[in-house]
Design brief:
Layout: E1 3-7, E2 10-13, E3 18-25, E4 33-39, E5 46-51, E6 58-60, E7 68-73, E8 78-83, E9 92-99, E10 117-118, E11 122-127
Length: 128
Amino acid sequence: QVQLVEAGGGLVQAGGSLRLSCAASGRTLSNYRMGWFRQVPGKEREFVATVSWSGISFDYADSVKGRFTISRDNAKNTAYLQMNSLKPEDTAVYYCAASIGTPGRGTNYYTTAYYAYWGQGTQVTVSS
């Protein structure tokens, strides 16, 4: 089992920055793909960013490209999401997720179904 704990959320003005962290326990994350998702009330959880186990391959939702950066430190068993130039529409609960192996039928690295482990979420609020 993998336990994930997010931290770093908070209230920030538009244009500001936040850095979220996702600390893992239970198992080493070095073999796991990591992802960040976000969710607002009444909407489905949406993909934000993902990074491969090696940290070499990553991808982002179009809405955050050029503003957010996903990274990981396998030695610290931690993943990060650096969020710059924040906008009010980035307001959401942010979740980190982890999984291992290739996606099954009907899933891919951008879908919630692929990820087996989830954190409890951290609130990010961007004021205008």
